[in-house]
Amino acid sequence: MTPPPSGPVCTGASKAATGVAAAPAGYPSFATYVRARGPVLLRTARSLTANPFDAEDLLQTALTKTFVAWERIEDHRALDGYVRRALLNTRTSQWRKRKVDEFACDELPEPAGLPQADPAEQQVLHDAMWRAVMKLPDRQRAMVVLRYYEDLSEAQTAEVLGVSIGTVKSAVSRALGKLREDPELTPVR
Description:
62% helix, 0% strand, mainly alpha
């Protein structure tokens, strides 16, 4: 039996295991660059994704691409631009690869609609509501009709009737309270 080797067999693995970066000797400034510009680049990555964890992954991928191309980058003053371009290209590739769950088809699928109410029941409800509105005092009835049947705003209703907006609000509130208490409309609630 031969004794095990005294030194590490794979120097890259031993450096990674001891916490020393496994970078080639020509790249000592890459770690310095990442420490100095990492927070700024992470903000850029966060602007490209909705999830902060996805932003960290995106930045790691872009930094990996930068590390691989470190020797080819001639102007190290333009590193931020290079990393930003790597971030953008990586993000674009990610959304292009995502699975599409919707497909175009010849016919539009119509959702199963809610069952239509019986027209006779709708007419009975309409008549009951109108009878309840007719029981209101003239001024309240006018305000309710303008606000809800004619769909005017509070300001428009106030202008038509020549009163303040506060008057419209309080009168409509009292009228709606009376309509809620109307015994003919109890089944509707």
